[in-house]
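Researcher: Re-running this chain for the archive, since the previous output was lost when a drive failed. Same request as before.
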Amino acid sequence: MLALEHPAVFVAEGASMVHAEGRRFSSPMTSKINRVWHKANRMPQRATLDQRVRWHLAHREACQCRTDLPAGILAELKRRGVKVPSVA
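Model: Regenerated structure tokens:
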């Protein structure tokens, strides 16, 4: 396994990821990560829902490492009547 910058996530074979606690999950990440943007735009610890929504919308425009948005963010955008932007 390869450790990522985040200490709680490790890359396993293929697109499968493993949390430090050992829980596996599928990753929608691709190799099109904008490392400069990610380094300059960390998600705040204990981010509010508003901060999370703003971060994910900015992330969607600046980076192509994800092909989706988290379900909670999608639900909040729908609740607010905000059109979900397409991948850059």
